Amino acid sequence: xxxxxxxxxLEEKRGELVTGGEIARxxxxxxxxxxxxxxALREGGHDIESVPNSGYRLLGGSDGLSxxxxxxxxxxxxxxxxxxxxxxxxxTNLYLKGMxxxxxxxxxxxxxxxxxxxxxxxxxxFHSPAGAGMYLSVLLKPxxxxxxxxxxTICAAVAVCETLRDVYGADAGxxxxxxxxxxxxxxxxxxxxAQISAEMQAVEYAVVGIGINTGAxxxxxxxxxxxLSAVTGGPVLRGRLTAEVLSxxxxxxxxxxxxxxxxxxxxxxxxxxxxxDQPVEVQxxxxxxxxxxxxxxxxxxxxxxxxxxxxxxxNAGEVRIKPLx
Length: 325
Ligand code: BTN
Prior knowledge:
Layout: H1 2-12, E1 17-18, H2 20-27, H3 31-43, E2 48-51, E3 55-58, H4 67-71, E4 83-86, H5 92-97, E5 109-112, E6 133-140, H6 150-166, E7 172-175, E8 179-182, E9 185-197, E10 202-213, H7 228-232, H8 238-257, H9 262-272, E11 279-284, E12 287-296, E13 302-306, E14 311-314, E15 318-321
Parallel strand pairs: 4-5
Antiparallel strand pairs: 1-3, 2-3, 5-6, 6-10, 7-8, 8-9, 9-10, 11-12, 11-15, 12-13, 13-14
Helix pairs in contact: 1-3, 2-3, 6-8, 6-9
Bound molecules: biotin (BTN).
């Protein structure tokens, strides 16, 4: 596709000028065609500067989201190999769940520039403004027991946290069960939605949704939320971030489903949990009590020690670190 080819040429020399003539010659099209394609790329969110009589330049911080932007960094066997990039959607999870999942391969992924109804856990919304986040949903078809379903969220949290640490040098940690934090503020939320086969009592499909804030954080949430560009102090290219998360998620997921390395993944998850051995407040089914977080069990339930010294496994409910009084 011509758009992709032009983008590829500009991407090869990101930050430098490429003449319209050179692009036209290499692709065997007219300069007018190049000019039109550049216009379409701009409309698609790519920041391309046009310098009269000199050519076009893809700006260093240009963060247009396209299939090409993801694919050029993608190193996976399955995850993201079939990929849909949408300019805007209500929710990538809803969109994917609305497809005929039986006909789609494992790893089918949907990414959007913006969500108008981004969904979080417990009926919450996930604020998803245009150009300011990575909003990704991936289809998984694991052959696992029903009780292991929460482990998919664990895999995703490990994958995101390790990506933020290893690729972006961020001081990231996991807040049980599905949030990733940097510097005491939330940077990522994960929502796993599974379809269960009643007669088989097994997971038929799982849609793992991952939202990472990358751009400016709205002032009204800046106390509780942060973003990858705020943490790194520079622009974040979402195409690359998406590919890195998919690649890392695939490794962790295959470690779980193919190599049976549950214990190793749990150890990594536990190491990244930032509330360990700290006093927490548990809000569960209308009850609120104090406890100390001690670890996670083999299915990812949070183990908390209550005041009477007993250990309780939490599968649902909310946990927050108790503020110092
Ligand atoms: C949470 O914070 O409770 C979870 C948020 C999950 C957000 C992601 S963004 C991509 C995918 N689509 C959604 O509607 N939600 C998830």
